Amino acid sequence: MNFQISPTRAEMGRAAAADVATTLRSLLDRQDRVRMVFAAAPSQSDMLEALRAQPGIDWSRVTAFHMDEYIGLPEDAPQRFALWLREHLFDRLPFGTVNLIDPGQDPAQAVRNYAALLAAAPIDIVCMGIGVNGHIAFNDPPVADFGDPLDVKIVELDDVCRQQQVDDDCFASFDDVPERAVTLTVPRLLRAAKIFCVVPGKAKREAVRQTLEGPVSTACPASALRGHADATLYLDAASAPTGRG
User: What does the radius of gyration of the chain's CA atoms come to, in whole angstroms?
Assistant: First the structure.
């Protein structure tokens, strides 16, 4: 698995954004549309800010998705990932199409609808992170399945994942964090042609070490990235394991 280490979080974000932009421009030179999946998390803020400033991208030919969403939050709750991505990306660039996950009153139907949208054409790029428990999207260790037959599913969030949302200042308390969510599955994410994985911060260091050096196992769902043909991990000095860099 490819990885890059930058001295600071801001430099990491700029490095990742520059590579995403280069890939986008290249794809848009060869095909009519590009389909991308984005993660919504504070860890992605630096990369998304730098990506917004990248020149020479015809965003009107980009179709956007996101990879997970809480179930049970009000439509206007600021913690909803759809709203976070609108604020940080989707409403700030002229995307051609933005497909938002809306669990609504029937999450099971929302799952089927979103899976159909994803299946309409190949996904070119995934921009993602890794959780402190090694999750990718909301595929926590207890529910991650490397052979999952589904593209999108409803999951129960584990306690480590829910606590991370509090530690990231997304929720005031553990009990405020929803217990269920909709997520793209591991196989669905890995079918993207290219993956850019941005992981800053000391709290992620052990998850990064397991991703790079541990067994490929659902105990660290991000370890599945090692089986992808074109995935790059972007780290800062705080998240890089000892001896790397």
Answer: 17
